[in-house]
Design a protein that fits this description.
Radius of gyration: 20 Å
Order of helices and strands: HHEEEEEEEEEE
Strand content: over 45%
Number of domains: 1
CATH architecture: Beta Barrel
Shape: globular
Number of helices: 2
Length: 190
């Protein structure tokens, strides 16, 4: 009976390690230790719809770990495609390095930018993370930074999700309705 009681207490203690819905049941590494490291972006999906009066713009991004495609209904040309390798390196001190290498034929170009990562919620939960990279401000990155919900945090895989929506109606005679909605999923693997 005493062994059973000890086993129940130990399991209850470790069950508290699971923060995200899709996190592993048991992990011997802290959430910080699971985030720190070099991560390959293995997939990214982004959908956006914005309405400004009668003008609607849609953006759809898909990345499968090597092939990138972006479709923007108001861009010229509307489709951008390429072959990329995208990496995030998250250091223990909160520093983030974003490396993006585009390959075309026999040539390649690499962009490296720095920023930071930090938990956005309490020290205990650590279920919301902020990724900030300098290139986001001037649209140099194909993967956008920002605040993400940590959907899954395993030793070798992280799944981050992001959703945003906003709408309002401008005053004046025209009374223009403006709305914006976006969803994204970012998967990192080691």
């Amino acid at each position: 009976m005493k062994k059973l009681l000890i086993a129940v207490i130990v399991l209850a203690t470790f069950a508290g390690c699971k923060k995200g819905e899709n996190d592993p049941f048991l992990s011997f590494r802290s959430r910080d230790a699971r985030v720190v490291g070099e991560w390959k972006v293995s997939s990214y999906a982004y959908d956006e719809a914005s309405v400004n009066g009668n003008n609607t713009t849609t953006v759809k991004v898909a990345y499968d770990g090597s092939n990138y495609s972006s479709t923007n209904s108001n861009a010229n040309p509307p489709v951008d495609k390429g072959t990329y390798a995208i990496m995030f390196e998250m250091l223990k001190d909160g520093t983030l390095k974003y490396t993006q290498t585009r390959t075309e034929g026999n040539s390649s170009a690499t962009t490296v930018q720095e920023g930071n990562w930090a938990w956005r919620d309490s020290r205990k939960n650590k279920s919301i993370i902020n990724l900030s990279v300098s290139g986001d401000q001037i649209n140099n990155n194909y993967i956008q930074g920002g605040t993400y919900i940590v959907d899954q945090l395993k030793n070798k895989e992280i799944v981050l999700t992001q959703a945003f929506s906003n709408s309002f109606e401008s005053s004046g005679a025209a009374g223009t309705k403006i709305s914006f909605k976006s969803n994204s999923t970012l998967t990192l693997t080691q």
